[in-house]
Structures are given as structure tokens and as C-alpha cells.
Amino acid sequence: MRHDFSVRIGPVGFRIGSDWRAPITELESLYRDYPKPHDGVADFTVRLFARRSWRRIIRPSVEIGGDYMLPEAAPLPLRQGLLAAEMAMNLQMALGARRYLLLHASAVERDGRALLMTGISGAGKSTLATLLAARGWRFMGDEFALLDPATGLIHAFPRLISLKNEAIAAAESAWPDARMGPLLPATPKGDIRHMVPDTRAITAMDTPALPALLVFPRYGFEPETRPVPPAEAFVRMTQASTNYVALGEAGFRALTGLIADVPSVAIDYPDGASAIEQVEALWSAL
Amino acid sequence: MSETIFRGPPDGGLLIAPLDEFTAVYHRASGITHLLTEPAPQILAVLGEGASSLDVLLERLGRDYDLDDGTREALAARLEELVEVRLVERT
Fold this sequence. Notes:
The structure holds 2 protein chains of 2 kinds.
Chain A: E1 3-9, E2 12-18, H1 22-30, E3 44-50, H2 55-58, E4 61-66, E5 76-77, H3 81-96, E6 101-110, E7 113-118, H4 125-134, E8 138-141, E9 144-147, E10 154-155, E11 161-164, H5 166-174, E12 184-187, E13 190-195, H6 199-203, E14 210-219, E15 224-227, H7 230-240, H8 244-247, H9 249-261, E16 264-269, H10 272-284
Chain B: E1 5-7, E2 14-18, E3 22-27, E4 32-37, H1 40-47, E5 52-53, H2 54-64, H3 71-84, E6 89-90
Antiparallel strand pairs in B: 1-5, 1-6, 2-3, 3-4
């Protein structure tokens, strides 16, 4: 690869190689405060390569590659190279991670205890984590929470926060001083803008937290809170984990342990302010 | 014709985690997680004491549970389901 860049996000080291300079420059800038992989060795390698060599010049289009591949992954135009890098990093994690049970969830921490939020795309995982972090919670991640089967602790994975559509304005107003990547309009996921997590999230990223509450948020409904029965929470979390099956027995023990120890609650909410209030109320009742 | 004997997984072949009315069961041999309701976990527990015929199973379950007349057929049906998902073997 002509250009490359390494970064460590939480416990995971990445090396990103690219046929073009531009996405690497953006990554270097946005991840400038992050450490390098332990001992300089990356856990995952991501490649952004031109489909054919001439395409690098004529009609630049980024194809995603790495140790783990999805053959149908579509090429993205070069201006979306940053999104391609992020998607490729997520893919490597989702398919390759074995040390942790990967929960597709955002996570914030307070007093050493973690609040996990999981749900389908658009449920508000990223937005809620961002808003809570603006109110004093420590941001641990907006995409993956890493559950360590050996300890039951949640490890942070505070990658760039991937804001979509209306979440962009909400996050910008909650974090007026945050560093932002370029606005990527009309990507396959809608408008995307990456936000650098705050300094505290980055400096504390090696500090794990004990999971204390599991929330299933749903955006666009009147405020309502209901407990989720353990079996339902268990099934939803097996679906929200990208490597539950691959982890086998360790995954089963980790997830049944989490469900047994941590209350699960579903939250319907009409807007961010309401969700924050509901979450804070649940948290203080723990 | 010899009587059908039902056999559960070997000792330690299952990890069992009661959740609520459901019990999560991890089958080590296949790596599959099952979510079971009564009486499936109880059947597996009794078969864990040793392979048995339907009648012996019924008798053993009767020690701990109130069983009524329809129980034999219901138990046979539940056993079939467990055979289908390969948690129980028929020999």
C-alpha cells in the first residue's frame, strides 16, 4: 500500500493502508490524539484499494479490503474514503474479534459503572451516548462495547463517532468545540459526519467499567419505560453481538452473566432531552 | 422389539443458565444455544442422571412433579422435539 496509518482504539490496534493519500491524511488528523498499537503491532489490517490501477486516477473509487472480507461490499467514491475506512475497521472487528464479546452498543461510564445502549440503526445509540457525554458521563464508544468474558468488564472502543443525518446537528450543539471530520453528504448511510470523542474519552480509554444497566432505546415514540425480561434481553443481545456464535462457550457464559447481573430496560423517547431524563432517572434508581 | 431409550448429552455437555420462564442451554458438541421452557430443562436434568425409556423417565419426573393422565403423550412429544434439535438421542 502506498500510504498507511496505525492507531489504537481501546485495546484494538489497526493498520490502515490506502492507495490514496487523502483518506490517510483525514484519519491522521482526526485520530491525532490516539495512541499507536501496542508494540507497534496491529490486530487488524484494513486496505482501501483501487479496483483497477487506472481507476486511481480516472474515477477514484474506494474498495474495502482487509483480513476479513465481505465479497459484496460495494466500492465507495473517494470523497467517502473516511467512511470506507470506518466501515472496513468495523468489519474487521465484527468478523475477527475473539478476545471480547462484541456488543453492537454504545456505552458511557459514570463512577466506574457502564451504561450500555443497543438497538437498530436509527434507535439513537450514538446520539444518546454523545448527549450523555456532554452531561458528564465518560464516552466509551458509539458502535461496539467490548465485554471481556474473563472479567465481565466492559472495555471502551471510542472510535470516531459516526453521526448520521439529524444527529449531526444535535451533537454539534451539545459539543460546540468538538473536532469534526468533513460532512459526507448522501452516502449509502445518509449524511455522515465524524466527530472526535472528547479528550477524557481518549485518555481514559484503557479503563474498563463494570456494566450496570442495559438500555434498548427507541426513537420517535411517546416517553415510555418498561423492563425487558431476561430471556428477551438475552435473545436481543445474541442478535446484537457480531461474534456470539464464534466465541462459543465463552460467549454464552459472558452473555448469560451480563443478563443475570444487569437490569434491562426498554426506553421509547420522542427527543434527546426526554431520553436523557429517562436514562438519568433509571440510573439514580439503580 | 426392544424399548426405545432416550439419552441426553454426556456429563458436562451442556451449560445451563436459567433466565426467567426460559432457560438458556448451550450445547457444547454443536456450539448451538437453545432457549427452552418447562418441561424441557427438567427432562434434560433427569436424563442427566442416566439414559432411560419413556416409562422410566415418567417415573423419575413423577418424583418431583405432579403428573396427570395426559403427561405420557405430552412427554413423548417434548422428547421428540429435543431429539429433533439433537439435545437428546434416541437409541
